[in-house]
Amino acid sequence: MQNNPVTPETLLEPQEATPLQRFVNVLISWSVLLVGVAGVLIWHYGVIWSGIQDFILPGPVKVFESLQIQLQDRLFYDHLWVTFQEAITGFFLATVTAISLGTAVSQVRVIERMVMPYVAAFQTIPKVALAPLFVIWFGYGMSSKVVMATVICFFPILINVIEGLNSAESERIRMLTVFGASKAQIFRKVKLPSALPFIFAGLDIGIVFAILGAVVGEFLGAQRGLGVLLLQTQYNFDIAGMFAVLLVLSMMGFAGHMIVMALKKKFAFWSVD
Amino acid sequence: MSSDSSIETGSSELIQGEPKGSSWISVENLNKVYFPKKSDPTHALSDINFSIKQGEFISVVGPSGCGKTTLLNILAGLLAKTSGSAKIAGNEVLKPLKEVGMVFQAPTLLPWRTIKENIMIPIEVQKLDKKFYLERADELINLVGLDGFEEKYPNELSGGMQQRAGICRALVHEPAVLLMDEPFGALDAMTREYMNLELIRIWQESKQTIVFVTHSISEAVFLSDRVIVLSPRPGRIAEIIDINIPRPRDLAIMASDEAGVYVKQIRKYFNSSSVIE
């Protein structure tokens, strides 16, 4: 991107970037990496120079060593697989429910009147605080974590579905009406596509929240899962191990985000630059 | 548009009746009163009477607030009238009719559809034979000079080209009546003149009855067989003027005395109502 003023001339013939501009552009695109590298270096030397103990804050080298050890352990993949299943199941359940309920609410006035006050009220409950209850109701297995993940990522998706379905431009609805479209056709041809960018924004938040829900559920009692592994490393004062698990969790979230973004680019391409 | 007066959406039915006599669209004693919830009712249209022959090109002009868009929305079946009658081909307009095509102020294309998919919207919505009308769409695309842009998305086209796609969409299901709501208002002067010429050409080939709403007096004079001048508050017909300029017309006509007389004749209603647009 150049910051030249937009005049008819610059619009007509896009100017070639000068070598200096190109150098600056390359610098900017690499600067993200530079910040990361600088951060790790500060962490590394900060730990060495301050003489801080490993069981308080290990350096990056220790963390990566620990990660390597974890990655060679079969049991680690068991934990990862369990958390992944819990999060993804919760995410799908929440997505299906939120889209169905959101559609009903935005299409049928009566349902909106009946349901929305309770939805709003339920939304004010701190969902994490429900985790102990879910463990009692659904046990120490995966199901209580799936419920936790579902509940925690349900609302951001629901709100976006409703917002999205209501965002359809009235001119577009008017256009379809003139050509004789039914309510169902207007929903399918205008409202749903208009909602897609919003729905993907909801899913983007939802996927990260689902992992959060699964891990919180595991904290309160489970045999398997990255949350369990995190607690085990804590009991052992294996702080480097904790960092390694955290790293894996954030990678999971990042992968989810990237997948949602790729889907958005495919199915809501007009809203992506 | 107040929500209480809009007509419920539903599938429209084919007009069975034949045009009665020579009037293809007839409007009699039409009144429209808006009842806003928190203020006094406004009389948008008052005792409107006119009739339009098949194949005629009619423009509706008037200062803002004269109800010209209200009138068009009633003919489109988007808005319920308060009293009187509005008939197309002898049938009272109670909901959107399949015989009507409409071009809007903004192109109103759907950004997730290609130009061709946008043009096919009326066919899809009315469940007409896709194969047959795809050919029709191609012909229209050629007619308006959009060939090569069928598979492009709306944001890849200029405003004028988007509006041309909007015209194709309005014509694709071969409607007998074309309603146009200030379709070129958002275009620059040059593109607008060009689009006026294009529209005349399309109209002469497709033989639609056109009701064209505009606030440009010269545009109305250039395009129309007759111009309906509305005066505001309440919107009533000030005069219906026959434009006896022979066709084919070209842009040079607009500089002639003949056209100037018509423009002056219409402009006096704008001045007397002291509303400047």
Question: What are its keywords?
Answer:
heterodimer; A: 273 residues; mainly alpha; MetI-like fold; 11 helices; 79% helix; disordered N terminus; B: 277 residues; alpha/beta; Rossmann fold; 6-stranded mixed beta sheet; 4-stranded antiparallel beta sheet; 8 helices; 23% strand
Describe what you observe in this structure.
The complex is a heterodimer of chains A (273) and B (277). Chain A is an all-alpha fold and 273 residues long. Helix content of chain A is 79%, strand content 0%. Chain A is flat. Chain B has a domain of 152 residues: P-loop containing nucleotide triphosphate hydrolases (Rossmann fold), CATH 3.40.50. A 6-stranded mixed sheet of chain B has the order 6-7-8-3-9-10, sandwiched between helices. The relative contact order of chain B is 0.18. The interface between A and B is medium-sized, with 20 and 27 residues.
Give the arrangement of secondary structure elements.
The complex is a heterodimer of chains A (273) and B (277).
Chain A: H1 8-12, H2 19-50, H3 60-71, H4 74-107, H5 109-123, H6 131-138, H7 142-165, H8 170-178, H9 183-219, H10 226-235, H11 239-267
Helix pairs in contact in A: 3-11, 4-5, 4-7, 4-9, 4-10, 6-7, 7-9, 8-9, 9-10, 9-11, 10-11
Chain B: E1 23-34, E2 42-53, E3 57-61, H1 68-75, E4 83-88, E5 91-92, E6 100-103, H2 115-119, H3 121-125, H4 130-143, H5 159-171, E7 177-181, H6 189-206, E8 209-213, H7 217-223, E9 226-231, E10 236-242, H8 257-272
Parallel strand pairs in B: 3-8, 3-9, 6-7, 7-8
Antiparallel strand pairs in B: 1-2, 1-4, 4-5, 9-10
- The CATH class of the domain at 15-98 and 210-277 in chain B, by name, is Alpha Beta
Order of helices and strands of chain B: EEEHEEEHHHHEHEHEEH
* Poorly predicted residue ranges of chain A: 1-14
Helix segment tally of chain A? 11
- Order of helical and strand elements of chain A: HHHHHHHHHHH
Distance between the terminal alpha carbons of chain A, to the nearest Å?
A: 13 Å
Total of domains of chain A: 2
Radius of gyration of chain B: 18 Å
CATH class call of the largest domain in chain A: Mainly Alpha
Q: How far is it from the N-terminal to the C-terminal residue of chain B, by CA?
A: 21 Å
Largest interface: A-B, 20 and 27 residues
CATH fold category name of the domain at 15-98 and 210-277 in chain B: Rossmann fold
Average pLDDT figure of chain A:
89
* Relative helix content of chain A: over 70%
Give the name of the CATH superfamily of the largest domain in chain A. Answer: MetI-like
CATH topology title of the largest domain in chain A? MetI-like fold
